[in-house]
Specification:
two-stranded antiparallel ribbon; alpha/beta; five-stranded mixed beta sheet
Length: about 280
């Protein structure tokens, strides 16, 4: 050894001596010293390159997963979506005939198998008969889901979820993107969503007629077109569950945040597939 302060641990020396008996002692000692120095160097590099903590005998390296998750979320569900509003309006007008349509809005119930017993009454709705968690989403004709609000108890209805949702926050704050279009000679600056009958009578929601007059062919035609076009979000729900068996069946986690992460991950992957297949009608 060159110095007394660089002593090879005895366990390494004994292991190498036992496994390399055909080598002379000087060679074993030199090889052990090289391995020991490499181990020390790797530990120093880990401390300099990333923060870590000891978790039992395993080393945890912080790879910035939270920052990466935030960037991924902003790519697909940013408060100010990055897409061409006028192109979205134009293609919805061409596909559906609704000028100024931004998308369709609706809610979906996801079963919750391991719901705590004390919460089952709160998360159970009569027509489902088992605990569920609600998902509100907005989808365009290309099945791109660009608004998600998840976590409300299944005993709520769509109006309760809408009142807690953030979908119209930008409109209330006056920061909504401009959606300029003309209908019947009137100019409008805010888009709208197609919705079913339970939603309130708001200017940003276009609903169908419940009982159109039999002699009014125009009203009946509008009812058929509206009910057909607002199925975009229903189709998006169906494709989402068909792709991911994890959300086709009931959720198994006992934690709502964990179930939320699962749902958001599946929706982001769904949007990635739509984008990769080239079916998106907006330019991101």
């Amino acid at each position: 050894m060159s110095s007394d302060d660089e002593q090879v641990p005895q366990n390494i020396l004994m292991m190498l001596t036992r496994n390399f008996q055909h080598l002379i002692s000087d060679d074993v000692e030199e090889l052990a010293m090289q391995l020991f120095e490499l181990d020390v160097q790797d530990e120093a590099d880990s401390q300099e390159g990333s923060s870590f903590r000891q978790k039992g005998k395993q080393k945890y390296i912080n790879r910035g997963r939270k920052d990466g998750d935030a960037r991924l979320w902003n790519d697909y569900f940013a408060p100010e979506p990055v897409f061409h509003i006028q192109r979205l309006l134009q293609l919805h007008s061409e596909k559906h005939g609704f000028v100024g349509m931004l998308g369709s809005i609706d809610c979906m119930h996801w079963g919750w198998r391991n719901c705590p017993t004390a919460w089952k009454g709160q998360y159970t709705q009569g027509d489902h008969g088992h605990p569920t968690i609600m998902l509100e989403a907005v989808a365009s004709h290309d099945l791109w889901i660009w608004h998600v609000f998840f976590g409300m108890a299944g005993s709520n209805n769509d109006i309760n979820v809408l009142n807690q949702s953030l979908v119209f926050n930008q409109i209330l704050e006056g920061n909504a993107p401009q959606c300029n279009f003309i209908v019947n000679g009137n100019e409008y600056t805010q888009g709208y969503y197609l919705a079913d009958g339970i939603y309130p009578e708001w200017s940003t929601l276009v609903k169908s007629f419940v009982y159109p007059p039999n002699n009014n062919l125009k009203t009946q035609y509008f009812k058929r077109r509206q009910e057909s076009c607002r199925k975009d979000v229903e189709r998006a729900f169906g494709v989402l569950q068909a792709r991911w068996a994890m959300i086709r069946g009931p959720g198994r986690s006992t934690s709502i945040p964990v179930l939320g992460d699962i749902m958001h991950a599946c929706i982001i992957l769904h949007n990635m597939i739509v984008e990769d297949e080239g079916h998106t009608i907006t330019i991101r």
